[in-house]
Amino acid sequence: MLATHRLDALLIAHPPNVRYLCGFTGSAGAVLISESKSVFFTDGRYKEQASLEVQGSRIIVARKSPLAAAAEWLVRNAKKLGVKTLGIEAEHLSVAERSRLAKALPAGLRLREAPPLAEQARMIKDAEEIEQLRAAVLLGANLFDVILKAIHPGVKETEVAAELEYAARRAGADGMSFDTIVVSGARSALPHGRASEAAIPPNGFVVCDFGVILAGYRSDMTRTVHVGQPSQDMRRVYEAVRDAQQAALEMVKAGVSVGEVDRSARNVLIHKGLGKHFTHSTGHGVGLEIHEAPRLAAGQKDVLQAGMVITIEPGAYIPGVGGVRIEDMVVVTDNGCQILTPTAKELITI
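The structure corresponding to this sequence follows.
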């Protein structure tokens, strides 16, 4: 594979990619891969952890940073291995790191920006990964009742988020997938608003977007509830978003472009007069990171493949009024998709 991209070796240091390639879960590690060898570098803090976790790679524990240790190792071994062109993760290396790496490498060894080979491999989940994701989704979904019990007029958004996160830890989560989103009333029109000190109003939507980490894999779900009795207009907004999500779910299957899935959800909201209020993509991949390839958005060319795990999450956000988002995680199959998120999607009023 490396030769196809005119590379003699590839240096990987982005932690999720390192974990995917060799199993190491620490924060300081790098993997150097050539056609014939795989070498893992870390520092003394992770000596024991590396011996327990790293698979398929020779382990080198150094007193330098993993990137510096890899460069030093190449000074001694590049000629013997025939490494003249080294691929790097341009998306994940800072300018300073790249400069230091280039200076430390042996003369004549060229750096080249490699395509996202690890990320491309991670797009397709194997059976074990899907089961890990399924377990994370179920743990997260089981916490929805905690949110419903915590939401009341006058309660701070941060208090709801705190109850959820405490329950997640008690249930066995390693942590939260991202900063929990609990936005209420007019603030629910903020697609990525975070839980604030604002009190939940006596009438309005509450958007709850959250996920948990379990064995390194992440879940992601959104449900929107309404405090007080919703008006007919608010019900119509909710039902439009639910219909848009259903249209996108029905479009998902191997061989369909991500742009088609996005368009199917967007067209429903346009037809309902809410197109201008859908301001983000329809979904994204999920795995060891909360946002992975592919991105389900207009203009994207990726084609869905069986084994991808993606979100489907259209929304409508009306400034000064409120917003709705409904999100499930699904596994792409040859003939459609398997919805992992078990939580019902009827509008709940509190």
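The mean pLDDT is 97.
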